[in-house]
Amino acid sequence: MRIILQTSLAVLVGLPVAALAEPLAAVDAGSVIIVSALRTPTPVDTVASSLTVLNKKAIDASQAPVVSDLLVRTPGISFTRNGGYGTATSIRIRGAEGDQTVLVIDGVKLADPSSTGGGYNFATLMTGDIDQIEILRGPQSILWGSQAIGGVVNIVTATPDRALEASADIEAGSRDTVHARAAVGGRSGPVHWRVAGGRFTTDGISAISPRFGGKERDGYTNSTLNGRVSLALSPDVSIDMRGYYAKGRADIDSAGSVPDSPEYSLVEEWTGYAGLNADLFDGALHNRLGFSRSETVRDNINPLRLIRPESFAAKGQTDRYEYQGTLGLAQGWTIVFGAEREEQTMRSASPPNSLASYATIRASADIDSQYAQVRIEPVVGLTLNGGLRHDHHSAFGGNMVFGGGAVWSLFDDRTILRASYGEGFKAPTLYQLHSEYGNIALDPEKSRGWDVGVEQHLFDRKLILSATWFERNTDNLITYNGCPTSNRPPLCLAPGTTTPRAGYYANIQRSEAHGLEMAGLAHIGRLTVDGNYSWIVAEDRSPGLNFSNQLARRPRHAANATARYAWPFGLNTAVAMRWSGETIDTARTSATVTPFVNRAYTIIDLRAEMPVTQTLTLFARAENLFDDYYETARRYGQLGRSIYAGFRARL
Q: Where is the TonB-dependent receptor plug domain (predicted)?
């Protein structure tokens, strides 16, 4: 059967009119894309950083239920997922750590100060009511501060266009999976509003692969709710309020000798924002005052623990106070400047299954920041930007970073040249400093990175080709180090005691990353084909045994290819391929231990959608068509062949 399917697919791909696909970055030729990842509306052709934009059309056509499945199909991005849907998911941009990527939803940074790296776990982020996804690669610390060493993923949810509008999506498929989403909103005089919600359930797969003893299915449920309202008090003054909520339950497996377990994890996260906008001097100066709070609560529950079922509990909270000004000095000259205060708190505990007392770790930190970035257009087609940011961390003092870039559109925008440079600073997280594995002697991570690229539009934008070279050096990269059972070094003892511990956090002296990202998009009649390839070398450059080791779980080679055919009677059919090269599971070695290698894999998906009316579309897809077995992390399985179908309504 597998051979028949492969042969049939090869025939389809070989037909000039029957190649199927999905161009994730497809946009209408000649359209002007506006992005908000630079904290002010900016045409994409004037952005100096390497950038990918996924619009609503591409998001819908992908049929992906989770954002991570979209991101991994774009240049320079790899991911790790510890099992099926809902398990821990890390996104890595250009080989950077997962916690060096900043996630922004409607202008608000989401992060969990109680997590290991203080970043965001992409496991619970569903595509839901998202209108646009913007991926900025390379250091973005000037505008987005700590953690933006690898890049920024900026999420923009939908806003209403009409007096009253609504949408609904429902799909079902393999492993009793059901995904339902709905939204309603409108514009009435000075008030704009929208509310959306979703529910995702699946019986799932065993988080620990059956090849390592996992047998039971580990299910997942996710509920999300987001909303926004804007009230114009006058032509120059308005109030914005936005909120996002997600709650997930994931069955998890033990990493021990008996993997199957009734244990499950609960994750509840929410963020709220309130802001005042005011324009002065006939709109030349736009001011924004805002406050946001984000909170993540995590609990692990094991029903087999009769005394204390809760085996882990954590809560991270971030309050952010901010002012931002945008000043237009003249045509093509803009200054974005602002000040922020970020207050982080965390608590974390691992209760024993007994009545014995246990410690709850509590810690906090404050960061005060000021930033300014100037964008100018000295001549038509050339845009320059440069900026500074100063952060003062309550535990590590002050730090200044610089960034700048240029983008030059030539020959009626047919050729676009980009170059950018950025610096990054990331203080050790509260968990890395104060947890049972903590090390208060850690130094902040610091990075310097640059890239240069070219984008070429040919045949009236029917063919678009791009290539980008990047380099990044990071000093004091923080990693977790496991402890040996004998001859323990001092850091393998709990601070101030003689009690052994399983591991500790320490600084790698230096890591380096460089690579090439290439992408192409072609429109040939009713056929659209696009693809990308990434070559990323991300290595430990510290002297010693680990020198030149590729950092853990980062493929040196990755590629995606998609093609789509629009049939004359309205049907759209597609085939998509994702290939990842092999990775090593840990960058740390010893004289006697060779790191485990996660093998390369190829995933083939088929998709189809058919409009029934102007407001109703039917769709279906087959993921991992050939049921390829693969692991992104040792022992953790991934989804096999899956079939889904549903409908999409836009009213």
A: 45-152
